[in-house]
Structure prediction request, 592 residues.
Amino acid sequence: MTTSADGFAGRVEAFLAETFALDPIRATDAGMHGHDTEWPDWSDEGRRARIAFADRWLTELRAFPDGELTADQRIDRDQLVGELEALRFSETDLRQDAWDALAWVEGIGTGLFLILAREYAPPPVRVAALTGRLAALPRVVDAAIDALVGLPGIPVSRLHAETAVDQLPGVSELVAEAVSWAEDAATADGDVAHLLPDLRAAADQARDAVGRLEAHVRDVVLPSSEGEGRLGAERFEHQLRHTLRDPEVDAERLLGRAEREARAVRAEMRRIAIELWPARLPGRPLPADEGQIIRGVLDAIAAEHPAADDLLDACRTRLAEIEAFCRQKGLIGLAAEPLTIDWAPAFLRGFGGASLWSPGPLDRSLPALFLITPVPDEWSADERESWLRELNDRQISLLTIHEAVPGHYLQGVRANEEPSIVRTVFGSGVFAEGWAVYVTQVMIDAGFDSDDLALRLVHWKFYLRAILNAILDIRVHAHGMTEEDAIALLVDGGFQEPSEARNKFKRARLTSAQLSTYFVGGTALQDLEVEVRRRAAARVGIAWERAGDGDLPGGHGDSPGFARRQHLEAVIAHGTPPIPLLRRILLDDEES
Prediction:
């Protein structure tokens, strides 16, 4: 077996080729389009093949001695090992394919959406890819029907099945959009016109298959389903460690830190709210209760929000202002790559909120997609107002920072510039979400809209939401948290609107460990900055300690030996690695 640095590079190429063949959706997402007509093999035979793949490559990668690899290769090897360990856990223990009907909807929807939404090739090439995937969709549905029977002691989740039935029409909409888009393209491209009959036939087969899956989940799966897919303490702990790529994480310690930080943030929110009270609620006496003070001011601020149809334009306007601020302050280098702000497609609206879809490392010239869930048409006037109050003017600013600049969009652009394909194809969600949380604090510290104290209050509410996400995640899956307690936590403890709180409780049960990534990643990057500052100060002979902000993050620009812009750009210059590996890269400790 070759164990030299050159040998490792060759084996990484072989690993990626095999990975893309096993997971064509990951290949499409990465910009490797040789498998665009295919789906992963989601049958039981395909699952066994993925387990064998993980076992074989874990053995091989672990056999490369540290001394025969470069520092960068050791990082890449360890990142691949973490990915394979997580894959093995997913296929042998978590087994969402057997109890989570929604996972099938998301997998199918993503496989079609990536081809339809990204203009990575001329229309004839993409029409052929869509035709192949649509024609093969009945086999995917067969695999879903075979798999969705639960596991011993783990029944099919009723909540996931109900949500899948609600979202499956969104997949049918994607199929219709694919045909409509191809028909429009055919008016100007004869090659597309020749492909239309096959595409239409495949779309008919796909629609029938989606309808068959919807009927099966509604009529067969739902009646025998039960529960909400809560993992329980032990399985959640394992899921958390694999999600965070950190075997040292302890859910109860994480919960304790989150609860301490929530108390510190609320205390700061109380201080700001008292200062804002006279202007925001003139003539009203200041209540004695902390929650009433904060809620009163936040309610007044929330009344200032865009209309439902104006949410996209509000984000576009705010993005231009945010970028101008970054340039003026020299805070961080910006990017010229295109960014599209649009409504989220129907199949992605199950969780609400907003998301950022970056192009893959091999499609880096394509636009990133900043997608916002529209206000549902079927909602009552009160529900719509509650949703829009949560997306008030200040929250739009923070959301745009988080999702776009300097958040996910900018980080995604810089990640795609990383030479290591390993760190771009296998991105860490903890790092990505952590960066967006962390850099929002950096923007506030740098003075963004510094004359608007209301923005600072809403920022702390936004950060408190990240903290409560982790608390909710752990308490739902490991402690069996009730809906009543969850709503109280989010509405009374986090000052969220009831509509958002109900949606977040649903999201916590539909996912596991993902809601913890915001707080874990944000605090980990804060901790990393503190360590980098401390080491930089020591190099110039100065003892540096974090200023006395209690448990609150932020509060610093440059410090002895430390340049904030240089640090920010270094953090996002290495792809999207798990944060334990980023610490090794930046701190160059003895483990690297």
